[in-house]
Design a protein that fits this description.
The chain folds into 3 domains: about 120 residues, no CATH class; about 350 residues, 3-Layer(aba) Sandwich (Rossmann fold), CATH 3.40.50.200; about 240 residues, Galactose-binding domain-like (Jelly Rolls), CATH 2.60.120.260. Helices cover about 25% and strands about 20% of the residues. The strands form 8 sheets. Strands 7-8-6-10-12-13-14 form a 7-stranded parallel beta sheet, sandwiched between helices. Strands 19, 20, 23, 25, 28 and 30 form a 6-stranded antiparallel beta sheet that branches. Helix 1 packs across helix 15, helix 7 packs parallel to helix 10 and helix 11 packs across helix 12. The radius of gyration is 27 Å and the shape is globular. The termini are far apart. The protein binds 2-acetamido-2-deoxy-beta-D-glucopyranose (4 copies). The site of one 2-acetamido-2-deoxy-beta-D-glucopyranose has 5 residues, from loops.
């Protein structure tokens, strides 16, 4: 018992510490999820020991997720195609399922079963690079005069008159409109925003006093302070200045100039999923808003979203951040409109949890770089038509005069939200979104992109619900009635003509997309809504499975029962990807407040080219909204597997993808132009359609009958059915109790911990572990054949200290690994197991439930012989993976900051 307590106490130490430094040169890092509530499962202690890994720490703020590591083999192991930890786990799985023929085998099998039952997620962490764009060279903006405002507030900051987004002398209708809020004495006091970016210059005299060190961290270099170190690390500082530059006679001032800003540095080098996940939850009880001006490449070709751990972190922030009111995630919509990019092809910006912000310029025009889509919520001011955003720059006393892009629009929204939260700290993440919808102001009313919604509001793919008006927003926030908790209705999935998308990443069946397109209907009834506890509609997600030889030719739109149409995916001429839409989830905010009862019609069209055709295989929807009965609501949990058609029925302690699932080993080509150099110069527009006009003829009969007949949707398991979640919740509560109990126990058991380690080390050297190690074919995978003997346990518990022996040697920001890891990663047999079972009955469900792969595109053209590109929760098969390993150095998934 003492041992158990001591172990728990040590876990708490792990969880409470700031993230430890990594040494990617010497170790492989993994994230595993250990379910402590499985009665027949293994303890974390046993899991760690059996996998022969060191426990490093909790994975950020993710309950039950642990970072573990294993020293890399010393010798050259080219040709070694298996990852030791993953293959060990595979061995355990095989062991657990094998029939028992002898006593000792039975012991092995029992341990293997316990471990396998407790661990339902295990993935190798690979470094990925998010690349920033160099800022464009531009001419300095002309100076305006805002002397009245400066005098009224005693503003002596020399660049204030040029900050037209605060006071626009030329076009007074176009500014963030916050001076009226300052008049009320509201300047963001007590609110913390976190800039998830390339660092924050806390030595800047314009930011020093508003810098929040506690909630800052450098995940690129694993240091406490987010020092901008690279020559182009000025982006985070500039965005921070827009929010919280002090009113102190230096440069200009921020919208919420008495609020605090933290810097979380992730864009200046390669980072792993687990670090990105930790970054998005860093300090999430004290930080209110996460300002994110980055995402997948805006090249009009990619279709990517956050991996499992990152999605998990976002939902963790929503469910548990800010004392349960939810972290506010603000994402820039992207700068790729000139490349035909749309924010519904970016899984960060089309998340229901993001407030997605596009840009308008100082004349209120749509800048040509700003991406449209049905997930756009609002616009805020940024560069275009000859003006830029003027803000603090890196350096002690520096100003930036060329800032812009949607990158700069997002922090302007963050500043306004900070003002509102000072007045109403109780607003939940959804209240903030409601306030956006309700208070955004229509601009360019004559722009044909505006369309009426069912509620009488106007919506535009370019402007969302309109421009964020700081005054209107904060005034409305003051007297806002909090919305009821969230509820959702997840529909059954419609399969067209027996369409399937399997673990082999192959599409089968489906309806051919004829000239004029194809449509499929789904009926939502009052009863379904009542059963799901949904009272009123907010976001909708539409997930589609479409196979097509050239993805960019596909157009997807949905029409509500009330006749409101959302274009979910417009044609993208640059996207010739042949992997289709393997369960891609689109999002629309256009149906906010609409009555969802009746028939929803999904339309899929293509350009009707003879040599690039496709099939529509299936779709489903999630209708998100407010609850009828708040006492019956539950919180959403990210499912582990969700791209198969038909989807796996996912329990809330879900089935697991293969190990290594989230660890892509590929590298996208560097997007050559993200934010164009002339982003501030080119005159905006207010008369062009958001998407290219369809080539398909609307009049052609739609091949809908068979599709609609095939399945009648029924309400899916949502609220009431998700009992698994409650068990989760209770385990969460339990572990929180444990946290406090154990925290108290730390001091009492400090000595116990020491004794424990001493005893444990001694014990581990004894027969137990080595015996296991040496037995059975499954166990050989543990590595005896490689190391030539029983593995040492020396390192197993080193990691409990803040810094373990080898932590202090070079943590690396350069990407060195992958050759070896890739070759291991790409080895087959990384199937995974459904480990959430409560008993010893093994289930092989969804073993290699999905396969992940992504590969570099060369010149935007894909060789026909290459297997389809797709993202899903899976591991590559050896054949599939080989092309990917061409990219033999740098990480994989280049992210790009939206400068
Ligand atoms: C800006 O705020 C003022 C109050 O300070 C308000 O009267 C006005 O309608 C708002 N909008 C614009 C475009 O000025
Ligand atoms: C959060 O705020 C509380 C109270 O202001 C403070 O005690 C605590 O140290 C803060 N935590 C972090 C991580 O900043
Ligand atoms: C779908 O598959 C089932 C069973 O395999 C078959 O009976 C049915 O006819 C198929 N439906 C269509 C539309 O092909
Ligand atoms: C679809 O495209 C393929 C490949 O170009 C072609 O062989 C096939 O005939 C096309 N099918 C139809 C119905 O056009």
């Amino acid at each position: 018992m003492l041992v158990k307590w001591a172990f728990l106490a040590s876990l708490v130490l792990c969880a409470a510490a700031t993230p430890s430094r990594r040494s990617y040169d010497t170790h492989n890092y993994y994230v595993l999820r250990h379910n402590p509530s499985i009665s027949s499962g293994a303890s974390l202690d046993d899991v760690v020991r059996t996998l022969d890994v060191e426990l490093v720490e909790q994975a950020g703020e993710l309950q039950d997720h642990w970072v573990v590591r294993q020293r890399k083999p010393q010798f050259d192991n080219r040709g070694l195609s298996e990852d030791l930890v993953i293959s060990t786990f595979e061995g355990l799985k095989a062991r657990a399922e094998s029939s028992l023929d002898s006593r000792s085998d039975e012991n092995d099998a029992r341990l293997a079963r316990r471990v396998v039952a407790s661990v339902d997620y295990l993935s190798l962490q690979t470094l990925r690079q998010r690349v920033k764009r160099a800022p464009p060279p531009v001419k300095p903006p002309t100076t305006g005069s805002s002397l009245g405002v400066a005098a009224r507030f005693g503003i002596e900051d020399p660049m204030f008159p040029q900050q037209w987004h605060l006071v626009n002398d030329e076009y007074p209708a176009h500014m963030m409109n916050v001076t009226g809020i300052w008049d009320m004495g509201i300047t963001g006091k007590g609110i913390i925003s976190s800039l998830v970016d390339d660092g924050l210059d806390y030595t800047s005299e314009d930011l020093k006093a508003n810098f929040d060190e506690d909630d800052s961290y450098d995940f690129n270099d694993h240091q406490k302070l987010p020092t901008p170190k690279n020559f182009d690390d000025h982006h985070g500082t500039r965005c921070a200045g827009q929010i919280a530059a002090e009113k102190n006679g230096v440069c200009g001032i921020g919208i919420a100039h008495d609020s605090k800003v933290a810097g979380v540095r992730i864009l200046s080098g390669p980072i792993t999923d687990v670090d990105e996940a930790s970054a998005l939850n860093y300090g999430f009880q004290n930080v209110s808003i996460y300002s994110c001006s980055w995402g997948p490449p805006d090249n009009g070709q990619s279709m990517e979203g956050p991996n499992y751990l990152i999605q998990k972190a976002v939902v963790n922030g929503i469910n548990n951040g800010r004392g349960g009111k939810g972290s506010i995630f603000v994402f820039a919509s992207g700068n790729g409109a000139a490349h035909g990019d749309q924010c519904n092809f970016d899984g960060y910006t089309n998340s229901i949890y993001s407030v997605t912000v596009s840009a308008v310029d100082y004349q209120g025009l749509h800048p040509y770089y700003s991406e449209p889509c049905a997930a756009n919520m609002i616009v805020a001011y940024s560069s275009g038509s000859g003006r830029h955003i003027v803000t603090t720059d890196k350096g002690q006393n520096s100003c930036a005069t060329t800032h812009g892009g949607t990158s700069a629009a997002a922090p302007n929204a963050v500043g306004v939200f900070a003002l509102a939260l000072q007045v109403r700290p109780d607003l939940t993440w959804r209240d903030i979104q409601y306030l956006c919808v309700e208070t955004a102001r229509q601009i360019n009313g004559e722009d044909p992109d505006w369309e009426a919604t069912a509620t009488g509001r106007k919506y535009s793919y370019k402007y969302g619900y309109g421009v964020l008006d700081g005054y209107a927003f904060v005034k409305a926030a003051e007297k806002w009635n909090l919305v009821k908790p969230q509820a959702w209705l997840e529909t059954k999935t419609i399969q067209l003509n027996n369409g399937t998308f399997g673990t082999d990443k192959k599409y089968q069946g489906g309806e051919f997309i004829p000239a004029g397109g194809i449509e499929s209907k789904m009926t939502i009834t009052k009863e379904m809504l009542a059963e799901s506890n949904v009272e009123s509609l907010e976001h909708i997600n539409v997930k589609v499975w479409i196979n097509h030889a050239s993805r960019g030719e596909v157009e997807v739109e949905i029409v509500s029962p009330g006749g409101i149409k959302s274009v979910l995916g417009g044609a993208r001429s640059g996207d010739r990807d042949s992997s289709g839409y393997p369960g891609w989830s689109f999002m629309s905010v256009k149906h906010w407040g609409e009555n969802p009862v009746g028939d929803w019609t999904l339309r899929v069209k293509d350009q009707n080219k003879p040599d690039s055709n496709g099939t529509f295989l299936g779709w489903n929807m999630i209708l998100w909204g407010s609850a009828i009965d708040p006492s019956k609501t539950i919180k959403y949990e990210v499912p582990l597997v969700n791209d198969l058609l038909p989807p796996v029925e996912v329990p809330h302690r879900p089935i697991v993808p293969p190990a290594g699932a989230t660890s892509s080993t590929v590298q996208h080509p560097k997007p050559t132009a993200l934010l164009p150099g002339d982003h501030g110069q080119v005159t905006g527009e207010n008369s062009k359609p958001a998407f290219p006009t369809s080539a398909s003829n609307e009049e052609v009969a739609l091949a809908s009958a068979s599709a609609t007949a095939t399945s009648t949707p029924t309400p899916a398991a949502t609220g009431t059915a998700d009992l698994g979640w409650f068990s989760d919740m209770s385990s969460l509560v339990t572990s929180q109790k444990w946290f406090f109990v154990a925290l108290g126990a730390v001091s009492l058991f400090g000595i116990g911990v020491g004794i424990f380690f001493w005893r444990r080390r001694a014990a581990l050297r004894a027969a137990n572990y080595t015996a296991l190690d040496n037995e059975g074919p499954g166990m050989t995978a543990l590595g005896t054949s490689l190391t030539g003997g029983p593995r040492t346990t020396r390192e197993l518990y080193d990691a409990f200290g803040e810094v373990s022996d080898d932590d202090d040697d070079d943590e690396t920001t350069a990407l060195r690994q992958p050759k070896q890891q890739q070759s291991r990663m790409t080895g087959g047999g990384l199937g995974f197991h459904s480990g959430f079972l409560e008993d010893d009955e093994m289930q092989t469900a969804a073993t290699d439930a999905s396969r992940y792969r992504d590969e570099p595109e060369e010149g935007g053209l894909r060789q026909a012989s290459e297997p389809p590109k797709g993202r899903s929760l899976t591991t590559p098969t050896p054949e599939q993976a080989r092309p990917a390993s061409r990219s033999d150095s740098q990480g994989s998934w280049e992210h790009t900051s939206r400068d």
